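Our preliminary data section would be incomplete without showing what the modeling component actually yields. Below, a chain of 382 amino acids is followed by its predicted structure, encoded as tokens that our downstream tools consume directly.
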Amino acid sequence: MPRSYPPEFRRKVLDLLAAGRGVIEIAQDLGISGACIYNWRKQDRIDRGELPGLSSIERAELVAARRRIRALEAELAAERRANQLLKEAVPPKGRFAIIQVMAAEGHSIKVCCRTLQVTEAGFYAWRTRPPSLRAIRHAWLTDVITQVHVDSRGTYGARRVHAELTIGMGIVVGHGAVEMLMRRAGLQGLPNKRRFRTKVQAATASDLVGRSFARSEPDQLWVTDITEHHTREGKVYCSVVLDVFSRRVVGWSIDSAPTASLVTNALGMAIGNRNPDGTLIHSDHGTQFTSWAFTRRALDSGLVPSMGSIGDCYDNAVIESFWARMQVELLDRQRWLTRVELANAIFDYLEIFHNRKRRHSALEMRTPVEYEMIHPYPEQVA
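Predicted structure:
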């Protein structure tokens, strides 16, 4: 192990060099290495600014910083390992076993005790103390519970294990103790398959359309719905708001999840583009359209909600026909690799192709934008 010399000793050696003594002579007289003296002299010149390099103060700070980093890394590693072992709240005496496991893995006992907020003296006393009667009973009960669980082919949960212990074996034990010991041993029963009854949905809005979609002016009736399509990354969901007068997509939203915000964003775009007043907004009974956010947005903007009957696609036939065309003309024509690729293609289809280029048979073979231009709003005619 390298010998450590105090600063005063090194200073005196440098003074001898400054007085004209040679390095070899000083090394022989003091019994130290000549290379050591050369290093001291070089470091002294660096400290005085004669040579480039780290000064003694900077080196000391660097060493202290590295020592502190190692200590912090040790504490962080101990805390992470402790979090892995502490699956539940454990009293202070119960943490000693965890410290013993961590110490066997190479963690410092001092750091482990500080991390788990127990004293080192308590840990060393626990390590030499014989197990308590409660600990012995819990160990025995754990073995019995494990055997009962195995005999049940791994199907028994805490309730049936407790019944087997108390009724079948005559062991006096509480249900909570059985739950605790099974949890610590990682034992659990097979869950029952829950059966959910389909609830009869009550209409949240009346059907104000009645499958009569013909309208003579823009913004009298909007229809909205959601569609989905697969990519290699996952599904892409699209919601549109369609004006049935011109078949124009007046609002749309694209996302990776069919949330209420998807349909609310599409509705918000439509409202910002058209400024409706008293417009019917017709949809199905999907949870997105019956959500508070969508309903509140529609009512606050002067829209009148309308919903078709449950499970009947014909009550929203216009939007279903739009999805069918989009499926054929865009979605099913190729395999989509990423969500971004499909989202860009949907945007191009809605805003550029469908609204501005595609000719519709229901619009006298005109595009939606062109049809609205030749059929202006009543106030524009006046």
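The chain has 16 helices and five strands. The longest strand covers residues 221-230. Preliminary results of this kind motivate Aim 1 of the renewal.
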